[in-house]
Amino acid sequence: MTPGVVPPAAPLAITLGDPAGIGPEVILGAWLRLRAERRAPPAFVVGGPQLLGAVAERLRIDCPIVPIADPAEASQAHAAGLPVLAGLDGAATASGPTADGARLSLASLEWGTRLAVSGAACALVTAPVSKGALANIGWNYPGQTEFLAEACGRPYRDAVMMLAGPSLRTVPLTVHVALADVPAQLSADLICHKARIVVGGLRRDFGIQHPRLAVAALNPHAGEGGKFGDEEARIIAPAIDALRAEGIDVSGPVPGDALFTARARAGYDAALCMYHDQALIPLKTLEFDEGVNVTLGLPIIRTSPDHGTAFDIAGQGLADPGAMAAAIVMAADMAAVREAARG
């Protein structure tokens, strides 16, 4: 955890991700890094004690695995090593995704989600999964975010993805859609709805009492008076006016090429972006090894490293655990903020 932050009462849960990807090795690496830095919060991995032990042995990662039967054992067990819930396991492979691996990653996600929803875990940190492998076994969700929304009884539109790093937070208002389809999906209602959730999340989970938002333009030069598009005048500016009328501190529409300079970043707590790459390119450029995917708008806390399964380098000891370590620390800090607010 961040030094000086009081840890939450319950441990946080870390899901395995796809066992053929880099999830297992970055979990091990992150835990070792945080232990060495004395920042490791009480936590446990949801399943895979033998799998994680095999990965640690193959890659020569000196991380003792401590099997536990209940999340409540994690706080005491973590002094001896990485606590891992027993009862769910599989083979450690790095030869590409398999149906068995997809089933294991899904079982870990489902179990971890139940523990977070019940309060047995204070937060959920999800390792990367293969959406294609999951779809092949009948999983009908675009991603883990949508799965978590349904598990929490919330509509998909209430689960807002925010990418966060030490110097930048961004929110893509449209996510996994073709760039050509973005303008048709934008609306003042969409912008206002997600902005309200972001403001609530910054207050509830990050302790920012008066959040400042910046809203990106869609077109070059913010449309330049309609020469390059009218979405700014027709959709984005009316949404900003409506949010300001509600008392939200929001600026924009800001041209995308001016929104992410150091001076601009100092003026807001989160940037709302019109499409996927507009949000992720600056975040990954600035914070690639510390970028965290945070889900706002849910009753549970969920973070994830902002990278994928990286099957091409899995099992070679090349994966940087920095983003997973950042996701663990951020989840624990968010849980501490919520707990402090409850008194």
Question: Any overview of this molecule?
Answer:
With 343 residues, the chain is α/β, with parallel strands linked by helices. It folds into two domains: 1-158 and 298-343, Isopropylmalate Dehydrogenase; 160-297, Isopropylmalate Dehydrogenase (3-Layer(aba) Sandwich). The chain contains twelve helices and twelve strands. The protein has helices spanning 23-36, 49-59, 74-77, 99-118, 131-136, 144-151, 182-185, 188-206, 231-245, 262-265, 276-287, 322-342; strands at residues 12-14, 43-45, 65-68, 82-85, 124-125, 160-164, 169-172, 212-216, 249-254, 270-273, 292-296, 302-305. It has a ten-stranded mixed β-sheet, with helices on both faces. Strands 3-4 form a two-stranded parallel ribbon. Strand 11 (292-296) and strand 12 (302-305) form a beta hairpin. Helix 8 packs across helix 9. The radius of gyration is 20 Å and the shape is globular.
